[in-house]
Structures
1.
Amino acid sequence: SNKSRVTVVGSGNWGSVASKLIASNTLKLGSFHDEVRMWVYEETLPSGEKLTDVINRTNENVKYLPGIKLGKNVIADPDLENAVRDANMLVFVTPHQFMEGICKRLIGKIKKGAEAISLIKGMEVKMEGPCMISTLISEQLNVNCCVLMGANIANEIAVEKFSEATVGYRENREIAERWVQLFSTPYFMVTAVQDVEGVELCGTLKNVVALAAGFVDGLEMGNNTKAAVMRIGLREMRVFSKLLFSSVKDNTFFESCGVADLITTCLGGRNRKVAEAFARNGGKRSFDELEEEMLQGQKLQVDTRVSLSRAIDHIYFLVFSSYLKGVSTAKEVYEVLRNRGWLELFPLFATVHEIAIGRLPPSAIVEYSEHKPSFV
Ligand code: NAD
Ligand code: 13P
């Protein structure tokens, strides 16, 4: 038949929610096979059981999304090659540092003509320029790769609160519409734009701005200052993206992946949260130390709560516990800026990094405007 088979590569917090969204649609839409295969990086739970077995028995990812039914048509599979073998549509949603290894294992194992999409935020920005995850996937596996980004805190979508997302595509509008169809639900509204790089850069760069927003919160500077930092950050996101890829479109920054993801991350994100604590301590304690400590706090909370609120806290703890992308992205962006002689053009990005490494005090976040960018 010409029904599409979907496989989700990744089963963390967002990966599990993505599987749930997709599984609700494959049941409804005749052009997809009902079954959604979800590759699980296998681990043994404290009970001694395998995570995959528990997901298949209870229909819940008890470790990364406890309390949420995924849909009976989600089948967890610990065997990566087996999971992708028959798939026409591949959804990549792992933490970005694992993608290089996963791609290597998948070379030659993907079905001919398969389509891919990346939900992964936090690409690597190297000296030579940024290494986009969608580019890594399409080059290594010889597939077309779209991206999906947006104001999407996974825990909120898991409990079906309304949000939006943006699909970025390169050329083929029909493929993009197919992805939109696969992800859209009444509480998850997806729009497609022809701008893969713009969408993907938005998802990464907003984490740097979230640190700046956190510093402002920690210094208790108020809403006007925070709004100003967000606006200036959005402008730097746009200029930086357009300097790297001339194809990037202005309108992309008004989509969910742009301004909306920036807002949700600057209001509720973990980068913001740790940056706030960093500024409260006058920059005297390192990000690593604070992350570690705030993590312990989360752990305590998790152990003393019950039921759904416990589940939500637990999810928050898990999401929070992975390393902070904003700090490493700020460093990587800084390297690009220095390498290309652009430091003066991006005072906010540059200052965030210098504060994070202790070269400048947190209060420098609003002093940077002395060096005005010359061309924006
Ligand atoms: P997560 O942060 O919950 O990460 C845990 C996942 O990593 C688990 O599935 C775990 O099994 C897996 N893992 C651990 N070690 C591994 C290894 N060696 N090889 C492969 N996998 C391994 O994951 P997530 O929240 O699903 O995030 C995936 C991507 O989605 C990230 O790029 C993130 O930025 C993005 N994202 C997350 C959210 C969110 O709210 N959580 C929202 C939007 C986008
Ligand atoms: P992280 O918490 O992994 O940065 O993702 C949250 C997010 O991107 C919200 O859209």
2.
Amino acid sequence: MSFESKSQDPASQEMLQLAADKGMETIWDRYEAMQPQCGFGSTGLCCTNCLQGPCRIDPFGEGPSEGICGVRDYSVVARNLVRTIVGGTASHSDHARHVAELLREVAAGHIEGYEVKDEEKLMKVANKLGLETEGKDVNELTKEVAEEAVGNFIGYHGEEMSFLKPMVPEIRYELFKECDIIATGINDVINQAIHRTAMGMDADPVNLIFGGLKAALADFVGCTIGTDLSDIFFGTPQVVESEANLGVLDENAVNLVVHGHEPVLSEKVIETARALEDEAKEAGAENGINVVGICCTGNELLMRQGAPLVANYASQELAIMTGAADAMVVDIQCIMPSLKNVTDCFHTELITTMPHVKIPGARHIQFSDTTADQDAEEIVRTAIDAYGRRNPDTVNIPDHKSKLMAGFSVEALMDAFSKINEEEPISVITDAIAAGDIRGIAVFAGCNNVKTPQDRNHVEVAKELAKNDVLCVATGCVANAFGKNGLLLPEAVEKYAGEGLKKFFSEAADALGMELPLILHMGSCVDNSRAVELGTAIANYLGVDIGDLPLVASAPEAMHEKAVSIGSWAVSLGLPTHVGVDVPITGSSLVTEVGTKIAKDVLDGYFIIEKDPKVAAEKLIAEIDERNWLLEM
Ligand code: BF8
């Protein structure tokens, strides 16, 4: 059987054959069983916001044109869109708030076991926020930064969120003000957005969309706090080498898979795993403990610890089907409840850790900030125990993995480029843009989506852009896909880059004494904030707005609500933003026109919804060329 229509990844294809042979169900089987999917839901025309519903509005004008309360198609679609954005904002921000509160408690001396690893980043963030740093010790300053971050949630200053302004050029910030899309606090806007989309509330689609953008910018602040504070805690990523794909599982080691998003848990797990290596060896695992990651927890640990990536979103079940995963420990987000069905067929321990993320039947080891070391020990020992129950006859690790380079924080990039231009390292990029060697920059974000073959759109859009001299940076599951496909390696430059991009990379390699990969892995999804930091640095250096730059975004396989939030703030920042799957807004021509056309007039950014990866790349390149032309004028 061929599985190319399901996944482009040969390791996934191999495991899908095994799943079919053994009668094990995967995400792809459930997707097939779900067909046909509801046309009303797919187009955003189903309203369940009150108990009189669900109301479904007929897009063809043959059925009801209004809901029971009289709500029209455009209001239903816009309200649903806003609620989707808010889902993303709540997700990123809850993650960020945990890190912020932990940082505050650690600085206050209430929690032990964590420390500030990156004082330089602490100073950088304090300066960015305009805090007085003179004469303050690390604890004092940490406390102030953490309190400022927490203040961005609850808006107790009654002011605009302080983490937003320094992240964008002044002119863009003024535009946000004009559009009235700056919230006083992340929680404030979530509260307001859920309220304004409730029954009997905002019915004006344009007003609703601006409310959605306000929530999206709050999401951006949540992402920024998540990145900045995690760097302060665990260190700002520097260039690392590692590997990706199911082949990183080690038959002769305890394989401990970390999955989810928060580095607060996974950093403790990897630290503890290193300390308990001998216990694993005593248990018979000659290679000790192999900590590997899925989704953005994987990206966080890769960036700072060099831990290999075992799977991106769509193949999380397949990692267990190898029979070699001794424990899968999960924290928050993108965790399929179906993992329990799969672990039931193997010795694998599925461990949930967060009070608000439990899965029926899974072992729950509560991970508390105050007992993090003991909790991590219990998790690692559970994995070692499970290793003893592993059945060697059921182990099938696909022989597919690729080497990769990651760790490209803005700091790491600027450190490297300062060897070329010590005063203005950013000019290494702007000069290459001016010379035409770099035609533009594309930020890749997002997931896998079972509606399109796993990783195929990611890889095809990226190859097409690289061939046309577009410098690509990536986060999240798309970065993982690039890793699996060898695109995070210098060797990929020769294979896939256009002549201009090749020249840029070769000159950089000569000057740096180090080869850079074709695509720069910038981290997890919250680390899209790093890409914005880079874009803003370029814009400020050139004295233009970020929306003037030949800078585009692409989410070829977007799936999660978080991807919709990120896409919406990317548009607000002025980036033409490609989405490679259908978005449930097509039920309203008005909302679709606003998102895909009119947004450009107001914000410079807009959505390009395009399923064909080649056509998508063409549209992005056309936009890059238009911007280059305008910049030269
Ligand atoms: O935050 S890319 S599937 S893992 S949502 Fe989830 Fe999407 Fe993966 Fe990370 Ni982002």
